Amino acid sequence: ADPALPAYGQQPRRSTRQVRIGGVAVGGDAPVVVQSMTNTDTTDVAGTAKQIADLWRAGSEMVRITVNTHEAAAAVPHIVERLAMQGIEVPIIGDFHYNGHQLLEREPACAQALAKYRINPGNVGFGKKRDTQFAQLIEFAIRHDKPVRIGANWGSLDQALAAQLMDENARRAESWDAGRVLREALIRSALDSAERAVELGLARERIVLSAKVSGVQELVAVYRDLARRSDFALHLGLTEAGIGSKGIVASSAALGVLLQEGIGDTIRISLTPEPGASRTQEVVVAQELLQTMGLRAFTPMVTACPGCGRTTSEFFQELAQVVQEHVRAKMPEWKVTRPGAENMTLAVMGCVVNGPGESRHANIGISLPGTGEAPSAPVFIDGQKAVTLRGDRIAHEFVALVDDYVDR
Ligand code: SF4
């Protein structure tokens, strides 16, 4: 190997303590877990249960919901019950701010129905009440035997801690810049709160940490430091990532760097949905990020060329979309009946320039006719030309060949 070149592939996964969240393992040797969050009013039991079911069907392995009022807390057991009646046992995480201690005390059925509590150390309370209320939250977690995510956030940083670190910085011989002080405040907020929870009796194997910011470089710096300074399981996510492609790109850039370095045990892609877009988009993006990085396989991946002036139509792009949607829709069934189908690769290519070559690399690939080519589309299966499709039923026949390949 050339020592001047960086090593190929990912760095080994960072060793973390494994946390059981309902039936899902996070950290340790468990695969990186995909999670998401609802945006429904939690008091709307039917609507929230439906969105959780949609997220779960899309592949979310845990789902977080807002628990902000007594009515929302009272709704939680009904939501969990409604999901169980549909055979859905996805762990539900309660997101608490400001009044979590009161809600967990007043609604023990909620405390029991949730699989994990998310506590934001910057929003537990202020002054002397903060320590008491934080201790109460941890005591509820211990009493109900629930894990906790201690999730610090740039937008709700513990102001007392930030002020204390500013003072310390002023006395430092070589003072840090303001950004580094704030990053340290975020990290210390998460780490100090976790250590306090351990002192109160919560096992280290019941704690997940996060420290989210909205800037890519800041997130990478914060998590590298957090990973270096503890062995708690880490929840990765860029907070307030943004809408549409901006949110997808920013999240993928930040999480991609960290995952490549072996950092991160569960991820959430926090997208602001575009009007009319499905909430499940964030789950698909999270899965695709993990799969394209080679960390997990969820659904067969379709390689498609971008198209150019050599193609006669956009038919091949439509075919790529049809094929990707088909395999994604079939995956829940294949997961049970055809395990391993998720590792399959497909190629849909627009002309002879790269079509046959790329199709040969896939398990099953098709090279559609470009401008000036004969109106035929060779299909390659496991590297060999298997059949040539013609006419206006190419899409239908190719999808049938994919299904046949999976069956075999
Ligand atoms: Fe263009 Fe053909 Fe390359 Fe697709 S495979 S981008 S159609 S040259």
Automatic annotation (TrEMBL):
Note accompanying the cofactor annotation: Binds 1 [4Fe-4S] cluster.
Keywords for the protein's UniProt record, in alphabetical order: 4Fe-4S, Iron, Iron-sulfur, Isoprene biosynthesis, Metal-binding, Oxidoreductase
| Taxonomy, superkingdom | Bacteria
Q: In which pathway does it act?
A: Isoprenoid biosynthesis; isopentenyl diphosphate biosynthesis via DXP pathway; isopentenyl diphosphate from 1-deoxy-D-xylulose 5-phosphate: step 5/6
Which catalytic reaction applies to this protein?
(2E)-4-hydroxy-3-methylbut-2-enyl diphosphate + oxidized [flavodoxin] + H2O + 2 H(+) = 2-C-methyl-D-erythritol 2,4-cyclic diphosphate + reduced [flavodoxin]
The kind of enzyme this is, by top-level EC class, is: oxidoreductase
Question: What positions does the entry give for [4Fe-4S] cluster binding?
Answer: C305, C308, C351, E358
**Where does the record place the IspG C-terminal domain?**
302-403
Q: Which InterPro entries match?
A: Dihydropteroate_synth-like_sf, IspG_bac, IspG_bac-typ, IspG_C, IspG_TIM, NO2/SO3_Rdtase_4Fe4S_sf
Cofactor(s) this protein cannot do without = [4Fe-4S] cluster
List its EC numbers: 1.17.7.3
Tell whether rRNA processing is among the UniProt keywords: no
What are the IspG TIM-barrel domain coordinates in residue numbering? 16-286
Please name the Gene3D superfamilies in this protein's record. Dihydropteroate synthase-like (3.20.20.20), Sulfite Reductase Hemoprotein, domain 1 (3.30.413.10)
Molecular function in Gene Ontology: 4-hydroxy-3-methylbut-2-en-1-yl diphosphate synthase activity (ferredoxin)
The UniProt entry, under Pfam families, shows:
GcpE (PF04551), GcpE_C (PF26540)
Which family is this protein grouped under? Belongs to the IspG family.
Tell me the HAMAP family matching this sequence: IspG
- List the PANTHER family hit by this protein, alphabetically: 4-HYDROXY-3-METHYLBUT-2-EN-1-YL DIPHOSPHATE SYNTHASE, 4-HYDROXY-3-METHYLBUT-2-EN-1-YL DIPHOSPHATE SYNTHASE (FERREDOXIN), CHLOROPLASTIC
Function per UniProt: Converts 2C-methyl-D-erythritol 2,4-cyclodiphosphate (ME-2,4cPP) into 1-hydroxy-2-methyl-2-(E)-butenyl 4-diphosphate.
Per its record, how is this protein called by name?
4-hydroxy-3-methylbut-2-en-1-yl diphosphate synthase (flavodoxin)
| Gene this chain is encoded by | ispG
